[in-house]
Structures are given as C-alpha cells and as structure tokens.
Amino acid sequence: MTEASSAVTMDKIVSLCKRRGFVFPGSEIYGGLANAWDYGPMGVELKRNVKEAWWREVVRTRDDVVGLDAAILMNPSVWEASGHLSGFTDPLVECKECKHRFRSDHVESGKCPDCGGELGESRQFNLMLKTFLGAVEDTASTVFMRPETAQGMFVNFLNIQTATRKKLPFGIAQIGKSFRNEITPGNFIFRTREFEQMEMEFFAKPPEHLQPGERNDDEWHEYWVNLRFEWYLRHGIRKENLRLRVHETAELAHYAKATTDIEYLFPWGWGEMEGIANRTDFDLKKHSEHSGTRLTYFDEQSPAEEKHYHPYVIEPAVGVDRLALMFLLDAYTEEEVGGDSAGAGKGETRVVLKFHPSIAPVQVALLPLSRNEKLTPLSREVYASLIATGRWNVEYDDAQSIGRRYRRFDEVGTPFCVTVDFDSLEDNQVTIRDRDTLVQDRVAIADLASILGERLG
Ligand code: ATP
C-alpha cells in the first residue's frame, strides 16, 4: 500500500471532527454503537454542500436527468429480482481462536489479523439488513433495508418516463440512505452500516438501436467517468490524490459489463470513492421478468425490427459520507505561523481546512473585534445584510478573543472572516481576512457583499 505524504492522520481528523462539531460517535453517552456516527452542525453543512454540488452538476444543470426520492423499504421481490438476495454477499472468515470475523478478501496473511490464530473456512455472508413490518415478527413480514438506492430508479422507470416523456438517453438520480451489514466496517465514516448514497441511472440505447452518430453505451460510460472525475478536481481535490481504476473481469459485480472506480489516496492507501458501472439491460430485464410489467422503451426510430426494448444503464454511484471524509482529509493542513492574524502565537502550528468555498460549511464569519456593546449594532447590521443575500452560510461569533475565533474558523475551513472594529464605526469599513493567505484588507461595507461574491466564486 502507498502511504499518503501529508501530515494528516485519521486520529487528527477524528479529533478535529469531534472538537469542532463535524462528527460525533453515535449514542456516545450510552457507550456508542459500533461504527455509527452522528453529524454535528458543521458536518450537516458539509454533507449538504457535497450533496448540492453533486445534484447541481448531475441533475439541475442538465435537461436529461431528473430526480427521485424512493422509499427505503421496498417489496422483497425487488431484491430477489435484482439478485441481491442470492448474490449480495461478501466472503467471511472467522478466527478459530478469538472468534473475530473478517472479510476473506481483506485478510492478506491467511492468519487472524487480531490474534494471529488460524482462520476457519470462508463462507458467503449476505450484507442486507433485515427488519419486520407489521405487528407479527414472522418471516412473511420480513423486509430489507435497501443496500443501494439504484433499485428505486429501476422500478420507477416507466412511471418517470411516462410522467416526463423523456426520450433516450436520460437519467434518474437519487440521494438517500442505504444500509449494509458490513463484516468489517471501519476507518471512521469510510465504511459504515448506515450511509448515504448518491446514484444516477443513465438510460441509453443498446448498440443495435443506435442511429448514426449517437453515442453507444461504452462511450456514455467513458463520458460519465470523465465528467465525474473532473467534478472532484473542480471542487478542489488534489489531482495527485485521485486516480481511476478499471475493474478486472473477475471482480465485476453480478450486473456489470464494465466498472471504473474513482479512487482517493487515504492515509491507509488507495480506496474506492465512486464506482461508475455499465449495468447493461440487466436490471430492467430482471424486473420485467419478475414483476410481469414490461419496463421497456418504445423507440419509433430504431433501425432494429423490434421497437420496444430494455435500455442499457450507466451508473455513477458514490457515498456522501465517504466524500465528506475525502474533503476533510484533502483540506487538512498544518502550518507554522506567528502573529495575531493567524490566531496562533509565534512559532505555533495553525490547523486549517482549505475547503473549496462551495464545500466549506461556513463561507463567511462575521466577527466583532470584541463584545463591546458599541460594536454590536453595526456588526449585527452587516451580518443581516450578508444573510439577506441568501448566497452563503454566514456565522456570527463574538465569544472569546479574536485570535481564538480565527483559530476556530480556520479549523472549520471558513474562507473569509469579516471583522468589525472601532474604526468601522467612523469609516464604514470592515476587514476581510483570507483563510489561506492570511492577508487582511479593508473594504467599504457598501462593497462587502460584491467583493465576497467575487472571491467566493
Ligand atoms: P466496497 O468495495 O468498498 O465495499 P462497493 O464497490 O460495494 O464498495 P458500491 O456498491 O459500488 O460499493 O457503492 C457505491 C458507493 O457507495 C461506494 O463507492 C462508496 O462511496 C459508497 N459506499 C458503499 N458501501 C459503503 C459503506 N459501507 N459505507 C460508506 N459508503 C459506502
């Protein structure tokens, strides 16, 4: 495995997340629940921005993708048709001595990673979480917590096509919770049993139905791989920490013809961020067979004899929590600084999250120099004027010394702090402090919103 070169470690991220209100251990006062995490005020803003950045690019700014919010609990037949009941498994081994369980494909040595003991036979373990519907806990009312959001899009294919009259190619996107009874969850929010996914099923014409000049499924696959890869770069992720990995035939999921992963260089090595799969017509065909409803598309212009067919599907699928972790790790920086503007004493280390402005939980902090009551009315007024633009998440903070407040906003990755001081009362100007360069400049209050607008992009 390759080591990440930056000073960031998981311990530092976990501790910053707790200290600053990004992520707390779930049910902490009861001793927690293994690998369950709660997102605090900064964490929800971060996740919200990540979801908005995705939705904007994949749905809002395109005329060929629409949204869906399907139920988490689905008719169990869905999972039979999709192949999840029989095939959504990971290989599991148990240590004969300490009884700890591992994913066979994650154990490199053949010995127990915890105690070095001998491992038993590998068996397939289904990852779907079960629950019961209704008052009687018998098998008739067993339902599954969805392990992916994708099936919601497939079973609604006809509903959406009929309601929107979309022509191929078009996509259906969804953001929502998924659940997997992972054998070895871990690495903080990288792998959990409850997580949020963002998936888009892009329905395209099968090769035999294409007209001259139209993209085929392989070309749409490549198109989405490139578009998704660029999204990471455009939101500030360092290129050297990203790579594409094409799946070998042997590791392809049961429904996929080809898959390319976008991987990130985590502190423990390269890990999957996002998978972009060519699912062919597998899912729509299976649901047509099992449900008796033909999930086909009618294409008058198809050169083939049969004008009704099951479209192919290209699917970019990514986890919100995993993206949040990546943005935190990539933004984490420690710098030697001195002086008040940094909020740290001379020779001290400043921790700063250099988030892209679109991802930062708070874009602007409004800070009166002190709690002196003479500063409050003007500070509140400037704050209200920034809030009124509706463009940014602005936080007002007058607790503690200005140095400590700068330190706090560096640690949550706020690009700009705006300070109101006694001179402001006379000259109607405020100071803008740049998180990354630490440069401070004075601007007229009247120009503040437009200057911030330019700098935040
Ligand atoms: P892995 O091989 O890591 O188990 P996968 O290939 O099974 O992942 P997919 O089914 O392709 O994952 O899911 C799409 C995306 O959903 C993943 O790329 C990841 O970002 C996210 N994801 C999947 N499982 C989890 C999990 N247990 N916790 C957090 N995010 C997850």
Description of the structure:
The two termini are 37 Å apart. The protein contains 13 helices and 23 strands. It folds into 2 domains: 266 residues, BirA Bifunctional Protein, domain 2 (2-Layer Sandwich), CATH 3.30.930.10; 95 residues, Rossmann fold (3-Layer(aba) Sandwich), CATH 3.40.50. The radius of gyration is 26 Å and the shape is globular. The longest helix is centred in the first third of the chain and has 20 residues. The protein has 457 residues and is an alpha+beta fold. The structure holds adenosine-5'-triphosphate. Adenosine-5'-triphosphate binds next to β10, β13, β16 and α9. The site of adenosine-5'-triphosphate (ATP) has 16 residues, from β10, β13, β16 and α9.
Biggest sheet strand line-up? 3-9-10-16-13-12-11
Termini separation: 37 Å
CATH class of the largest domain: Alpha Beta
Radius of gyration: 26 Å
Count of helical stretches:
13
Tell me what portion of residues adopts beta-strand conformation: 25-35%
- CATH topology name of the largest domain: BirA Bifunctional Protein, domain 2
What structural class is derived from the secondary structure elements?
alpha+beta
- How many domains, in number, for the residues? 2
Offer a concise description of the structure:
The chain is α+β, with helices and mostly antiparallel strands. About 30% of the residues lie in helices and about 25% in strands. It has a 7-stranded mixed beta sheet with strand order 3-9-10-16-13-12-11. A 5-stranded mixed beta sheet has the order 20-19-21-22-23, with helices on both faces. Strands 5-4-6 form a 3-stranded antiparallel beta sheet.
